[in-house]
Amino acid sequence: MDWITLINYALVVLTIGFGALGWLAPRYTMDTVDLKDGGSTMGRSEVRAASGALFVVAGIGALILHTPAAFATIGFIWAGGGLGRLTSLILDGQTRLKWIFFASEVAVAAVALAINIGGQVVMTAAYSSL
């Protein structure tokens, strides 16, 4: 197994792992990111869906499809999280935890995108210049 595959698998395990926390332990996730339950179950439902099962299924999908595009999609998902976090840093104020989450999201996104589409972009540019 080559190093790109190993890194992709590690990123998928990370994605599924964090997703599983949101999906199966929404109260823990809500406490970690300072979300409050408004009295209905809608908050937990949103965490289970958007911060949980979405990531689990995206990771499983990448494993099933097992293509660079599927693994790159993991990077795009984390980049979306990073964009949302950056928006919050700018508009809502800065905290140490937000910066840690932002750095983590950008790092995962950068690695997943670089190893799965970075080389393809270089190869496409090289072939188109011939």
Your description of this structure?
With 130 residues, this protein is mainly alpha-helical. The protein has one domain. The chain is 85% helix and 0% strand. It has helices spanning 3-24, 26-32, 42-65, 68-91, 96-128. Helix 1 (3-24) packs across helix 2 (26-32). The longest helix is centred in the C-terminal third of the chain and has 33 residues, at 96-128.
Write a concise synopsis of the structure shown:
With 130 residues, the protein is mainly α.
Please render the helix and strand layout as text.
Blueprint: H1 3-24, H2 26-32, H3 42-65, H4 68-91, H5 96-128
Beta-strand percentage? under 5%
Task: Count all strands and give the number.
Answer: 0
Q: Runs with pLDDT <50, length 5+? A: none
Q: What is the average per-residue confidence, as pLDDT, rounded to a whole number?
A: 92
Q: How many DSSP H or I helices?
A: 5
Radius of gyration: 17 Å
Q: Can you summarize the main beta sheet? A: none
The global form is globular
| Share of helix, binned | over 70%
Distance between the termini: 32 Å
